[in-house]
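A quick aside before the break. I want you to see a complete sequence-to-structure record at least once, exactly as it would be stored in a machine-readable document. Don't worry about memorizing anything.
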Amino acid sequence: MSKTLNNQTVEWNKLPWKQIERRVFKLQKRIFRASQRGDVKAVRRLQKTLMRSWSAKCLAIRKVTQDNRGPRTAGVDGLKNLTPKQRMSLVSQLKVTGKALPARRVWIDKPGRDEKRPLGIPTMQDRAKQAIVKLILEPEWEAKFESNSYGFRPGRSAHDAIEAIFKHINRKEKYVLDADISQCFDKIDHITLLEKLNTFPVLRRQIKAWLKAGVIDMGTFSKTEKGTPPSGVISPLLANIALHGFEDYISSFKKAGRYPNGQAKKTNATVIRYADDFVILHESKEFVEYLQQKAEEWLSRMGIELKASKTRVCHTSEGFDFLGFNVRQYKVGAYRAAKVGKAGRQEPINLGFKALIKPSNKAIKKHLDEIKRIIKAHHGSPQEALISRLNPVIRGWCNYYSSVSSKDTFSECGSLVFSMLKAWAKRKCTRRNSSEIIRKYWRTIGGDNWAFATEDGHKLIKHQETPIVRHNKIQGVSSPFDGRDSYWSLRTKSYPGLTPRVKKLLERQKGKCEYCGLLFRNEDVMEVDHKTPLSLGGQDTMNNLQLLQAHCHDVKGTHEKRQSTEEPCAVKVASTVLKERVTK
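That is the input. The structure line, written in tokens, reads:
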């Protein structure tokens, strides 16, 4: 490879990413299948091949330097971003050596509280190494993980966990243990975790180095005796590995009972886990309380415990909150039985319960507080600026809750937002009466006579406009590494968190990125791009939009920027030559 800056820049942007991704994904699928059939020797051989792979190193570096759309914060190495030249240099230097630098600790505010929580920032090289190790370990453990584990796994979401709960309690009353693990990521025992990993020596040494690397807070070094690597790329995967086996352990206990016809039966409980939050469901309250003790015993082996303030046993008719949703059963109603009772009268019978899942009161309050804060911060801003700031907040929240019984909640939120906006409008126009204010800020657009919109049609999204579309739960132990590309492509399009515009683009592009031609996967960051930029006369219409992967969007933007800077130079040279000819 060339050592010059310009050539290395071109080399990074012009790498054959399509072939690189296919090569890595092919190896991952082979690891997944070998793990499924229990061929440990083949798994280790393929993992070592992937660890040394140049393609895996390129993908890992692209993930931590380009795909990461979060705030850019430097570790102890002081690096926030890498140039294309530095990325190419890191590819040649990156190697799993069994060494790690300490993480830099920063303190961030807890949402809605005055407290702060610690956040560890690894160095750029350690982030890239962790991304490689995740590529290696994830397919092996995806073949082992339990079917009702949903948190921080590719192709699975909170909506799958909620749908699993709904299917187990719909029309059947149960008792539930709603539990939360206290500081799960910070208290996992290192020795037990490494024993459960049971990987080859090089990888074991590297993971152990991250676990023991420590943190630097304001120049003071502190050891890390427990917990996963702070805020590392691999931390969620290690936490899932630590909690693996919990569902099988709880399900192994059976409750003795009898069927209505007198025959003996044994029933086990259902465990549904999302990262460090889980619920245990069963018909018997005593059995659920017994399983709570067993759960505490199992978790103590990993060095963790339940959080007492967030753990309780209740009946599903009382309702409980899980992942921002409120899950509750309601009685269907009493009807007259056809059979006459002993007193010669028809007796009412209860046909059972019906489960309804709605946004939790806490989630609703948090959302309305956020809208109130935005409106208050924009009391002096024009209407268009306020609409532009509110629309993403309303759209994102409604999309998250669009797969459950949220119609009434959306209507109530819409009414409350209208009241907030009316107060905002009155504050801006103190000398006008209410009818003049309404005529100024609310207009008729289509069939909506109360659209909060500007004169040019820039309209605020209403909560009530979001359609309710039920989410289809993932099939059993399915995984993106099982080779069913068509199934996973359809699931990507139907994810509740996507906006209607993104869903339409996915349908039109058949689930593929327009730039590289690869199928979108669940963990990919997707961005909407204008084919012809707005600065060059393009319009914000569906015909001018395309859906790209985040890194493809970066490459396209860099290419367009280079063209825009080169074209004026060419025009300037041509005009200079023309002037010289005229002068002569």
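Two observations worth writing down. The chain has 20 helices and 20 strands. The radius of gyration is 28 Å. We'll return to this after the break.
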